[in-house]
Amino acid sequence: MTVRTRLLDPAVARAMSAVSAAAKKGLGDPALAELVVIRASQLNHCAFCLDMHLGIARGHGVDERRLDLLAAWEEAEEVFDERERAALALTEAVTVLTDGFVPDDVYDRAAAHFDATRLAHLIGLIVAINNWNRVMVGRRIPPGGYTP
């Protein structure tokens, strides 16, 4: 696969980075934030973002077993707690939008585990990583080249 372009307007990149950083900070749980962005990146097949965020997750102490089982989180009940599972369900619903909207039960499940402010930051984070995934996949940016 050939990279289409590496060009990304610096102002756009700064704005997208600011949204991501604000959402992560507001969520207040760096390990969960990385699980969310990794799961969205898996769904979107974004190798660049997976490569970057797997490394960041490890830096936040997320163990390999959790990373290995993230794609099958629904079947790995003993590995992810209910709060994480609610966040991952919301991540999938916002990322895929199968029915054109986020189902009420998925939203309500997340709302039971996050106050309104943290839920807003969680949704912002999901939207931000989906934007990044589309920017990277749309340009066919390969993994690698990320330096923390």
* CATH topology assignment: AhpD-like
| Strand percentage | under 5%
State the end-to-end distance.
25 Å
Largest sheet: none
The Rg value, from CA coordinates, equals 15 Å
Kindly name the structural category. mainly alpha
Q: Oligomer, anyone?
A: single chain
State the helicity in percent bands. 55-70%
SSE pattern:
HHHHHHH
Low-confidence stretches: none
Outline the structure in words.
The chain is mostly helical. It has a single domain, classed as Up-down Bundle (AhpD-like), CATH 1.20.1290.10. It is 66% helix and 0% strand. The chain has 7 helices and no strands. Helix 5 packs antiparallel against helix 6. It is globular, with a radius of gyration of 15 Å. The relative contact order is 0.21.
Topology (elements, then pairings):
Layout: H1 10-27, H2 30-43, H3 47-59, H4 64-69, H5 82-96, H6 104-111, H7 116-139
Helix pairs in contact: 1-7, 2-3, 2-5, 2-7, 5-6, 5-7
Keywords:
148 residues, AhpD-like, mainly alpha, 66% helix
How would you briefly describe this protein structure?
Helices cover 66% and strands 0% of the residues. With 148 residues, it is mostly helical. It has one domain (10-139): AhpD-like, CATH 1.20.1290.10.
